[in-house]
Amino acid sequence: MELLCSVVVPMYNEEAVLNETYRRLTQVMENSGVEYEIIFVNDGSRDKTAEMLNEICDKDKRVKLIDFSRNFGHQIAITAGMDHSSGQCVVVIDGDLQDPPEFIPEMIKKWKEGYDVVYGKRISRKGESFFKKFTAAAFYRFLKSMTDVNIPVDTGDFRLIDRRVCEALKRVNEKNRYIRGLVSWLGFKQTAIEFEREERFAGETKYPLKKMLKLAFDGITSFSYKPLKLASYLGTFLSGASFLYLIFVIIQRILFPATVQPGWASILAVMLFFNGITLLMLGIIGEYIGRIYDEAKSRPLYLIRKTRNLADDRQPLTRD
Ligand code: UDP
Ligand code: MG
């Protein structure tokens, strides 16, 4: 029977959930009756994740493993999984059971109806902090207002893509990836299914604020120049306004020298304000330059230490 569905699961320090994830995924896929493979990507975990995944691979040949040489990040782990998948469709799902595997058959059904991309849209999020919910909701809306690409709001990486979309994605080589945006950018026939995001089964989030910010900046800088445009508009406006005020100050000094006040506070306020704005704009430009620098170096996207149960476990260990 032809391999129908590849399920890609990134894993970073997930020893607490891993066996349960494997159990539930297998159960769902068995019940759905389609031919499948599960590709776990071990993203340089420092706990027992690698050993445990190897054990699963020993007894279940439908489970494949890609073991990274170090931690490359969630988005790159997903990319590697897709690169090595061979199913007619590919499902990407988080390893912590926040995305319920039970929705996969529904996604496959939509795919069989003729959709190329079926993404999961979160209608609610359980067990996440107010801070995370608020920043996530604000970010998705901000990103939407910043870009011309129609990136659906409240959508993570839980989605099914057709083989053709996967092949198209393989040709996208950028380093600082925001995959949910890239999939929107590709086009194709897309649809959503709604689901409730569950609580993490066990363990804690692998997305500390620092990684969240990195992903947010990648999302914005990959799909929009608007921050740069805003910087130049703001610069134009502020220097125009400053020039007018300068004329006013000079006239005041010539015509009414006696009314000029000692101006320590006002000078300091203006200086701090303008220096702040200047640094902010330099920072925005820096974000873009840093990403240009990453592209220019063109280092491989990831390095694989070893693979298990793939057609050829000695295939190229990297992707340029
Ligand atoms: N993950 C990864 N590499 C990382 C961080 C996270 O592969 O550097 C994986 C993690 O194991 C999980 C998925 O990405 O399967 C989503 O991470 P997490 O659940 O911690 O994020 P959250 O749901 O809190 O946003
Ligand atoms: Mg999670």
Description:
The protein has 320 residues and is of the alpha/beta class. It folds into 2 domains: 5-223 and 301-314, Alpha-Beta Complex (Spore Coat Polysaccharide Biosynthesis Protein SpsA, Chain A), CATH 3.90.550; 226-297. It has 10 helices and 9 strands. It has helices at 18-32, 49-59, 74-83, 104-112, 130-146, 163-170, 179-186, 209-223, 226-255, 264-297; strands spanning 5-11, 36-42, 63-68, 89-92, 117-125, 155-162, 190-197, 302-308, 318-319. It has a 9-stranded mixed beta sheet, with helices on both faces. The chain is elongated, with a radius of gyration of 25 Å. It starts with a strand and ends with a strand. The model has no long low-confidence stretch (mean pLDDT 89). Magnesium ion binds next to loops.
Measured on Cα atoms, how large is the radius of gyration?
25 Å
Tally of individual domains: 2
Mean pLDDT: 89
Helix content: 40-55%
**Can you tell me the overall shape?**
elongated
How does the helix and strand content classify structurally?
Answer: alpha/beta
Euclidean distance between termini CA atoms = 32 Å
CATH class of the largest domain: Alpha Beta
- If classified by CATH, what would the architecture of the largest domain be? Alpha-Beta Complex
